[in-house]
Each structure stands twice: as C-alpha cells, then as structure tokens.
Amino acid sequence: MQTSQKHQTRVNIHRLCRQPVKDDDQFCLPHIQILENNACSDIGSQGPSVSYQAYNDQIFTLESSTAAASFVAYDSPSAISVSSSRSPFSPQGSQSWMSDPHHSPDNTHGSPFSGSSVVDDSNGLKHKLRELEVSLLGPESDIIDSCNCCFTSGAHQAASMAGLNHEQLVDMIPRLDLKEVLIACGKALYDNDKSRVAGLMHVLEKMVSVSGEPLQRLGAYVLEGLRARLESSGSNIYKALKCQEPTSSELMSYMHILFRICPYWKFAYTSANAVIKEVMEYEQRIHIIDFQIAQGTQWMYLIAALSKRPGGPPFIRVTGIDDSQSNHARGGGLSIVGQKLSEFAKSYNVPFEFHDTSVSTSEIQVQNLNICPGEALAVNFPYVLHHMPDESVTISNHRDRLLRLVKSLSPKVVTLVEQESNTNTSPFFSRYIETLEYYTAMFESIDVACPRDDKQRISAEQHCVARDIVNMIACEGQERVERHELLGKWRSRFMMAGFSPYPLSSLVTSAVRDMLKEYNNNYRVVEREGSLYLGWINRAMATSSAWR
C-alpha cells in the first residue's frame, strides 16, 4: 500500500466503549480541582489539549464487558423491519462519504469503511488483482456481495485476493490495501478455508501495528480476534490478546484516558441527566435506578444541578446495579460508590440515600429494587442493555423481561443510551464487516487526540477497546457478550414492553451541543423522531432516547 493510500482521514469519535468520568470533571463541577499531566496532548486546533497523571481517590465510569450472556446467531426479521434505512447524518460535505464512489445513500450507517479510513485510488492494483483472479479462478469467480454493507470496492478486491497463493500475497504486501486484506481474511474464515486464512494472517502480521495508523491498530486486534476464533479460544480472551490483566489503578487510568478524549460517556450522562432534571422538575422525592452505575459519577452531576432548584433540593435516592469490571476498577464493591455519592450530596446539602442491590442485571427482580411509594422513579440504561441475553439466546429472554419488569414499576421516565451498531443476531461475516466499520471510526477518533507512539494510549486501546473487538469476532453463544442493536430495534422492544417515546426537548439537545464544544468540531448531534444521534460526519455512533 503506497504512503498516499495509507493516509487516513482523521476522525474523532469513541464507541463504548468504555469511558470513565472523573468526579471532578470541569464541564459540570467547576469548583472541584482539575488534575492534568502528560499522557496525551494536542488534540489539535479543533479540540482541547488533554493530559493525565496518576492520582488517588478517583471516580470514573466503566462499562461492563463481562456481563453474562448467551446467544445463537440468526437473522432477525424484526431487526430488519424496524431499523432505519438512512443515517440521520447528511452525506453533503462529508469527506468520508464522498471519498467512496461506491457508497450507496441508502446505507444504514452512513459512514463507509473505505471512506472513513482509506483513500482508494489503486486502479492499477485492482486491474492486476482482477487479472490474477480470472487466471486462477475463472471469469465467474466468487465476489463478496452477500453482506449488506458499503464496502463494495474493498470486498471486490478482497474476493480477488481469494485466488492468490501465499507467495503471491507476500510479494504484493507493499501494494496491498490493509482494508481489503482484512475483509478477505474474514471471508476466508467465514468460508472455513483454513489454509487461505493462515496465509492471509501471515500477510496481516506484516501490515498491522499497535502504534501505527488507525487501521493498522484496529487490524492488530482484529487479527487477534481472527486467531482466537480460528483456534476456538474465544473463552480465553486475555490469553488471545497476549496481555496481562491490568491492576485496578491501571484500568481506571486507561478508562480515564479514553473518557477525556472521547465524548461517549459525557453524551450519555448529559442527555440522560437533562431529561431526568426536566421530568422531575416539581418532584420532591426522586428515586433513580441505575442499571450500569459503575463509579456513580453521573449522579454527581445531577446532584449538583438539583441542589440549585428554587425552594430547595429534592430528596434523592439512588439504587445501583454493579458489574464485575467496574468492581475491579474501583477495587471494591458498591459501598465505595455509596460513600462517595453520600459525601458529595452532603457537600451540596442535598438529602440523599444509596441502595446497593448486589444482584446482577440479568437476575434482577422487583424485590431487589427497594421501591417505595411516593417517590418519582427514573430508570437509567447507559450502554448496558446490549449485554442482556435476548430471544435469540433463551426462552427466558432477559433483555425483554427486564424491560417488562421496569414497565411494571410505572417509572416517570426511562433513559436509554446505546451504540448505534448492528451486531446482535447478524451472521459472522456481516458482523465482522460491521465491526470493522464501527471501530475504524473509533480508532480514528483516538488518533486525532493522542500521539500514535503514546504508551498509555496503546494500553488503553488494548485493555479497554480491543477486548470488545475480539469478543465480537472470536466468540459465539454465551461467550459473545457484545450484542448491539440499532435504535429502531430498541424502539420496537420498548414499545412491545408497553412504553411510549418521550421526545427529547430542545434543552436536552442544547446541553449535548454545549458539551461537545470540548471536542473536535466534526462531531455532530442530530435530533430525529424525538431521539438524539451522536456521530462523526455521517457515521452515527450512539443514540440517546427516553421512554415512559
């Protein structure tokens, strides 16, 4: 691949993945000391300078990657029927869209893999690959066209590579497009062509790097996922990644890095808090059930905001559900979160109670939630429902069962924030292509914020992002816990459970736009059908919606 072809459009957006929030974040709590140091710097002229240091008494937010789940892969008709056919982000003015001449405006996600990551102008190489394909496979050689995705150009060349032997591929490495090799390797694995997979993996080893360009870094972790799947070692994710489990303080530090340079968790906190504050304007007793409480930082923001209410703050009670990764990061149970929140509320003179359920999300029953009469109830689902097993797993269908349980509590509002991606019931190759597209945007977002040789950035990607990628590629059944759905499918689930949409107001949109001023100005927030989409140019990455 030529240097000019390797040049990649810098994009600034983060998935979920897993982003912590520090309890002294300046955007909402200006009176608390802000700590900065040298881990990452120079986001650029369009974003803030970010740096970090190790310190004690931290509170961040982590999203669990270890929630119990069990799935079987199959195509869901309901997922197709309710999913949007268009991204809310317009293609006009988008370099990532326009750089892919094969892109279809009907693409569900909007941001093509080839457009957001690789400038493809290798017509000579395409012709050579096609000649080799015809000579080796014949004129009717198989071309990848079964995947409803926007990687037409890359997929065609990937199909061409299917006919090349190992020596030919190695000789062509300087001219190969990494994107195309990744697609070809995934297709070979999907076809169970282990000999071809082995050859393509050998080629990938020479093309990827954890300190390279965004696609090279993504490719390094995709390669680990492919290896783990080929060797049926998906259950040994840490072993497959060849990295040691980080200590609690290390994990907290890595999550903090990703939080500071990416807006995902702030998008979740800001939008949900704005809705809850609006709905609870005249309530004197508020009960919040948080199904992904992590470090509890979101509620510090809300406590601070409600402390300024005319006539005095309301009584607030928070019920938290824990997860193993957050537990590890904080170095203990939810009592740590309860103590932090209680002390914080006391400093704002806000009456406060904390309740620890000590039950996993999939096992929650009404009696675990400490419901009291006379309290206005809000329920929060931040990047957590996609870990719940659904009807493709078991007749228990915990995903929909939980929604019905919450509806039975008659909440005043339910807030939902999820990644806008479709990896739940998709067959392997479709899921693989979706993973490549989604995480290309994520790695590009990190790239604009941190130097490529930054060791803390490398560790953060390895421990907080790569394992999600490996999980989606290597695992099936109960082991695959990363199961995202598009907002259209979530809308269908909520309505089947008896909920109706609560349209987000202009105040919520304004709060999110104000928050995004801290980040690269290529981020977009778009309101559509009462929900908010967070995206980069034309790729929708996360959605926020409310229900009642």
UniProtKB/TrEMBL annotation:
Swiss-Prot/TrEMBL keywords: Transcription, Transcription regulation
Transmembrane segments annotated in the record for this chain: none
Residues covered by region (Disordered): 83-119
Region (Leucine repeat II (LRII)): 336-368
Polar residues composition-biased segments: 107-119
Pfam family, one: GRAS
Residue span of region SAW: 474-548
Segments for region (Leucine repeat I (LRI)): 176-236
Annotated Low complexity bias: 83-96
Stretch list, region VHIID: 255-320
InterPro entries cross-referenced by the UniProt entry: TF_GRAS (IPR005202)
Ranges spanned by the short sequence motif VHIID, renumbered to the chain: 286-290
Family in the record: Belongs to the GRAS family.
Protein name as annotated: Scarecrow-like protein 13
Source organism of this protein record: Gossypium aridum
Lineage: Eukaryota, Viridiplantae, Streptophyta, Embryophyta, Tracheophyta
